[in-house]
Amino acid sequence: MCGPAYHPGPSGPDRVVALDLLGLLGVAAAGMAVVVSGSVAFVDIALGVALIGFLATVAFAGFIERGSIDEEEGP
Amino acid sequence: MMALLSVAFLIAGAGLCLIAALGILRLPDFFMRMHAATKAGVVGCGLLLVGVAFAEPSAGTWIKVTIAIAFLLLTQPIAGHLLARAGYVAGVPLWGGTREDQLEGELQRGDFDHPASAVFRRKTMNHKIEKVVLGIASGPGMDAAITHAIAMAKAHKVDLAGLAIIDTKTLHDVGPVPIGGNYYAKELRNTLTAGARRRVAETVEVVEEAATQAGVRFGLYVEEGDPIPILRDRLTDGVALVLSRQAWFDHGLADKKIAPMSKLTHHRIAPASEPREDDAPIVVFG
User: Fold this and answer.
1) Is the Cβ of A27 closer than 8 Å to some Cβ of chain B?
2) ipTM, 2 decimals?
């Protein structure tokens, strides 16, 4: 029901935005799963996905600001 | 009642999520896409979660849903803001049609290593103008463009070249015809092209007269075809291209009205400056 989401955009930052939206759609999908399956546990999953999505976005934003992801030194 | 409320919220939320996804796919630059993703995404998800709470009403669900929504409302604006700032600092190109960059000078922008940015980066007037090219179309706004181009050529002491284009791509698109209508479609195409040639001749006369009066040397090129590649070819270094803001190269003959500005920005030809008056000519630097 949530339609097409991930568009591998023309550049890196575009992909991060797409990933951000994909995270949000993950929350939405978990919400729909509650209605479809009737199991309330999926609400917890929605909460978790929202958390991780936020962290991922913030981390990627840091990467973009400092330069491209490729230039980043490995861990 | 609860079921109805639940369905209403779920559909509203899913609809907003769909709009957000469409925004990501369709909007022209990074910042607009980001705005679509975060704004619509967060409201869409919020509504959807409220719908879920109505579908499975219990104290536990309501508390969890409230926490989730509060969390989304807290984090998504921050994430969006961070992303936009990061994108701006990294130098992600703005849409060609952007009029105002309020952060210009506030934040330092990097060079964004992406092929599109070379096309998108707005050329400014910091280099020498060697030639002024006036796009000769017929219609409103052309007088202003002629005056501007001649003044520019005079100020920089360079020649003025008139570039008359007949947009055969638009004029030949006469729309669907019924079976057997091909002959008439051809006839219509010929009539339109001939009309465009007549109008070009009229406008060229006006330009020539104005140029002679101002004492500017004037040369003329006439081309027929799709204007965008022709304009692109002419936009070499040192060329300033002056176009009318309202008149396109169909010379007012095509059924649909073509706005030059949106046509140019759509094909990633970015004008140098955008004055707010409606009839001010468009200037593009090569």
Assistant:
1) yes
2) 0.76
